[in-house]
Amino acid sequence: RDGERDPAVFDLLTTAFDRIRTASDPATSRALATAFALRLASLLGYTPRMDRCLECRAEVRGETVTAIPERGGILCRRCGSSVRTGIPLTVDDRAHIAACTAEFRDSPCSLPSTSFAFILIATHAWQPLRTSAAFTGAAPLLTREHFSASMAGS
Asked: Which residue, among 33, 27, 29, 31, has the nearest Cα to 12 in the 3D structure?
């Protein structure tokens, strides 16, 4: 939707940045950034699937699962047992992710939820800014690799 106005995205950006700027502690800032990433992903059409296995399509209820943010969802215990990568998500983590995709909220979140959110948005919504060409030479271009490296260091 390049070049189109999106009031919902603009409202989310302004609300999230104002709330992050005035957050009282790092945990609140992290929760707000996580909620922002999840809601933005949803507004952009990348709502993660937290209730069904990506492989066998079985409904997943009260178990810890393996999340694959690059694929936008989860694997049930059986399908996830053969996967070497992924993020373990509890029932509470999945509920938090689902709630944050529906609306921007600042409820506490786990580190696995944060990891899922940032990998999801980096994978599905990342594009270099068109305006970066105007700043050639002024600063290095922020790429997906730079983003991933900065997330690993924090």
From this structure: 33
Report whether 59 contacts 52 (CB < 8 A): yes
Measured at the CA of 51, the angle between CA 116 and CA 28, to 5 degrees, comes to 35
Q: pTM of the prediction?
A: 0.76
Which residues, in sequence order, are CB contacts of 36 under 8 Å at separation 6+? 12, 16, 20, 104
Q: Tens of pLDDT along 24-65?
A: 888 888 999 999 999 999 998 899 999 999 999 999 988 899
Tell me how far apart the alpha carbons of residues 81 and 130 are, in angstroms, rounded to a whole number.
41
CA quadruple 37, 43, 44, 49: dihedral sign: positive
